[in-house]
Amino acid sequence: MVTPNAEISKEIADAAKMCFQCGTCTAGCPSGRRTSYRTRKIIRMAQLGLKEEILSSDELWECSTCYTCVERCPRQVPIVDIIIDLRNMAVAEGHIREQHKGTATNLMNIGHTVKVVDVITELRENLGLDPTPPTVLSNEKALADLQKILTATGFDKIVQE
Amino acid sequence: MAEKYAFFLGCIAPLRYPGIEKSTREVCKELGIELVDLQDASCCPAPGVIRAFNKKTWLAAAARNLALAEQAGLPIITICNGCYGSLFDAAYELAEDPELLAEVNKILAEIGMEYKGTTKVYHFAEVLYNEVGVEKIKNAVKKPLDYQVAVFYGCHFLKPSAIKQVDDPENPHILDDLVEATGAKSMPRKQKMLCCGAGGGLKAAFGDVSKKFTETNLENMQESGAQFIIDVCPFCHLQFDGVQKDTEFNIPVLHLSQLLGLALGMDEKQLAFSTHITPVKL
User: Fold this and answer.
1) B31 membership: H or E segment, kind and range
2) ipTM tops the 0.90 cut
3) To which CATH superfamily is domain A10-92 assigned?
4) pTM over 0.90
């Protein structure tokens, strides 16, 4: 039994409301051409409040956030924002892949999403660049500040132990 | 725009393709754009992954980067569509929504920072086109390049266009113009605006799907007769560079800064092609 808009957050349901299911989003979607992801269907499911079905689906993570749908939508539905909000809900309920946890963990540990490798550090020096980029990587206090922000917003809950 | 910018490095350029960082610094120096390192900055954080995991974290960490530039009194320049996407979008949201800004400032207060909402964010290519101009670049070319190339805009440089307004999102020209200022020829091809496939966490979660996007692009680029792929995003760059490994494709990938570096007479060694996965033969 489906209760429309019962469980999706009000913000998402409101944003999705304007969609009249024309399918322009799906027609131009590069992911939809290669996978079972159907933009129109996700938006319809959001309208109907099919929370568990959306949050546990692989399709929710098959959008590359290219914004083609947003550019072409005749109703100005903020489709990528909706996808992002739904992903936030999914992650909050524990639906997150290990690879994504790895990226999150890098951010928590070093303030960047990719790791430092020796061969690049050496090459940077040869190029006359700072061997370590002048970012949080070069300043412990700055990294600690960033980590405080990440923790204050609950990001520590999704990183790997 | 301005003549002096806070240089936001991001992650992939400094930590995987330092030749992109190096050539950006050299090209800017040559063209009269002053770069000041945005000290203590972090990942933007990445729009397709970090924002998708926790929007509050994404916005607060982006606001910290924006506040660092605000303290320095400088607009931000980025060399990556992802950084541009995150920082531009975050700056826009915070400038438009005082309540959201107040909420973010509560978090920043924990580290003794405040963001007033004034930082402007620009993409390197946008600055070159609007601030320096194609004519000045043409005049600065020391070594005209006789290459046929595939120009790749990526997604977050132009979209969402309602807030970015850099160029037409479906039929843009500014990158083509910048690239052709070096003497290279931008080859027309099918599906020029097709996403590289890396964004939105797709590369990490569904590598095979992500690769299919890239392969369609590569087929179209090959068919166009392109000898090089020219991008403005280290993540698109990594995607095109890496996916070609163990395939029939062999089209070297250059960031716009590297192409301009070549045209402005930079020593090839300074462009650090040794870190490229698809060999760069000039």
Assistant:
1) helix B18-31
2) yes
3) Alpha-helical ferredoxin (1.10.1060.10)
4) yes
